[in-house]
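User: Let's play a game. I give you a shape written as tokens, and you guess the letters that built it. Ready? Here's round one.
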């Protein structure tokens, strides 16, 4: 995504680890750079076990420019031809109390043989010691042509209790689904 405030790169993949598809690995590598060369890197691996109801357990390992650690949580996952929902509530495995909510919701209805509408909403919120620490929202609205997505995007970012208008990055996105 190229935006008015910076560039955002995000590589994600979800892979079943066994035939039934109950055990999956979701991996994400993300890089952000503003136009003043301030950068942030993040990598996370989410090991999930999902029951028939869509609920299950998750163990998450993460490393970023600021910190590293692990989380344990409960997730909900459902995917169909037109939609995907992944929602995770987790707690950090550390002496510092940290709780977070992460979700991805996508809706991609077919418009004809080659074209689909592409919509995506990602939400992340973290609380530390019972106070809001950080929130991120990523919104995508565009088109999909044979697995190639493109369109309008905005990333919103809040730290603490202040809603900072400088924490938004509207722009354009391109994405390839393999």
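Assistant: Ready! My guess for every position:
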């Amino acid at each position: 995504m190229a935006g008015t405030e910076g560039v955002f790169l995000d590589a994600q993949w979800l892979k079943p680890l066994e035939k039934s598809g109950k055990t999956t690995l979701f991996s994400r590598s993300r890089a952000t750079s503003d136009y003043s060369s301030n950068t942030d890197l993040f990598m996370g691996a989410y090991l999930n076990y999902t029951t028939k109801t869509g609920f299950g357990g998750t163990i998450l390992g993460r490393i970023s420019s600021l910190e590293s650690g692990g989380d344990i949580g409960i997730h909900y996952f459902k995917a169909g031809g037109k939609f995907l929902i992944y929602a995770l509530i987790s707690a950090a495995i550390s002496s510092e109390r940290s709780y977070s909510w992460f979700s991805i919701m996508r809706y991609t209805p077919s418009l004809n043989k080659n074209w689909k509408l592409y919509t995506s909403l990602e939400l992340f919120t973290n609380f530390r010691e019972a106070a809001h620490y950080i929130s991120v929202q990523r919104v995508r609205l565009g088109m999909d042509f044979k697995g190639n997505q493109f369109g309008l995007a905005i990333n919103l970012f809040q730290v603490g209790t202040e809603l900072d208008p400088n924490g938004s990055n509207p722009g354009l996105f391109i994405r390839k689904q393999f």
